[in-house]
Design brief:
Length: 184
């Protein structure tokens, strides 16, 4: 009986050692990936958006990377406001203040043109009505510049609307303004 308990205890102890060993290995791998990510961000040869350094030494935010509250206007009238999250890797997430039954999140890709100081965005929207019927797609394009020490943005947008078969329907164009959302 005693040897049976000793065997059970030994198996249990071996199991615990195995679990802890695997956990430490998994944590080390996770930490390694964060270290690699941090090193990659600091590396100037990294193929991501080169302007993604958030704050210059003078405290001016020279990057669009971050969270923004934006407004889209046509003819001086606001037609939509949204939160936009611009990521360092050149992607963007757009969450407009619309009825959530029609879909509220769309995704984009952006690039910075150093020669002109303009950020160009292209993002796509699956367009549904409130009954869940697919209406087609919307192709949103933006051209933006930063001002006020990198805390505001402004520029233009264009939305092209397509039916479910991909046939062009109409276009809307206007202006975009935005303010950076910061922790402070």
């Amino acid at each position: 009986m005693k040897s049976s308990r000793t065997l059970i205890f030994a198996r249990f102890a071996a199991f615990i050692v195995l679990v802890l060993g695997l956990s430490a290995s998994a944590m080390a791998s996770c930490a390694d990936s964060f270290v690699a990510l941090a090193a990659g961000v600091a590396s100037p040869s990294r193929p991501m958006q080169q302007e993604s350094q958030v704050f210059a030494s003078n405290g001016v935010n020279s990057s669009i990377v971050g969270l923004w509250h934006v407004e889209f206007a046509v003819g001086g009238q606001t037609i939509q406001e949204a939160y936009q999250l611009w990521n360092a890797g050149g992607t963007e997430v757009h969450n407009p203040n619309v009825d959530p039954r029609s879909g509220t999140v769309c995704l984009g890709a952006w690039k910075y043109t150093a020669a002109t100081g303009v950020y160009k965005l292209a993002h796509r929207v699956w367009n549904y009505d409130t009954n869940g019927n697919f209406m087609g797609t919307i192709h949103l394009s933006e051209e933006l510049t930063l001002s006020d020490g990198g805390n505001t943005l402004s520029g233009s947008f264009k939305s092209d609307f397509y039916d479910p078969a991909g046939k062009f329907l109409t276009e809307a164009a206007g202006s975009v303004t935005g303010k950076r959302i910061s922790v402070d």
